[in-house]
Amino acid sequence: MNDQLPALGALPPALSALPAVTVVCGHYGVGKTNFSINLAIDAARAGRAVTLIDMDVVNPYFRSSDYAQDIEGAGASLIAPDYAGTSLDTPVLSGAIEAAIDDAWAHPDRLLVIDAGGDDVGATALGRVSAHIAQGPYAFLYVVNGCREQTRTPQEAAELLPDIERQARLRATAIVNNTHLARYTDAAVIERGVDFAEGVGRLLDMPILAHTVPHFGPITQNGATLAADSEEAALVRTISARPAAAPAYVVQLYVRTPWDRA
Hints:
Blueprint: H1 13-16, E1 21-25, H2 32-45, E2 49-55, H3 68-73, E3 77-79, H4 95-106, E4 110-116, H5 120-133, E5 139-144, H6 154-168, E6 174-177, H7 187-204, E7 208-214, H8 231-240, E8 248-251, H9 258-261
Helix pairs in contact: 5-6, 6-7, 7-8
């Protein structure tokens, strides 16, 4: 039995060492906003000065800015479009974005997380500041999810990335596997997800930084260590038992549909 299970909110080494400017992108519905929120909150709790920029202008239901209380409560800052929190999807980009990028490069101990929409509109919005991002070191994380329409096979996920890169005017640098079914996730889902993500990685010749595992319990203020017999622990072991697999990253399910919030 592996007693060295990750704590809830503990970042895998590759995510802890991300460069100061990190873009998170992915096709619609893969869970990139929930991943972005977890990354920002957990990096802030680990001691980095974090700013999260909500540049996802694609869908009004799944935006980082809707979770400002969680983000700012963890000590991270949030920059959101002028129309965030409304039904308007006009991409309004503030000069604060480029200033935040410059500030992150000037202080490498900081982390700027840019939550960008992966569809044409979202990636195009990112493209408006891509020339500035490209002037310095950055990571571009491609979030994939084998449980979502249009990305159910490695080939489908791999074929979508060139369009995202073209619209964003940036090249992806690594993959994050976010294949799960929230509270309905079991070991079989995780196994299929690891296979799926590794297939995407081979097709794109790109490393996988982490495989996410959903936390089933209530959201806590300071995180909690996984119990040895918990459901999350079993899913983590499913990943750790795979030879050469990227590490597990246990994430909170912050982002929920409006009907789930009722």
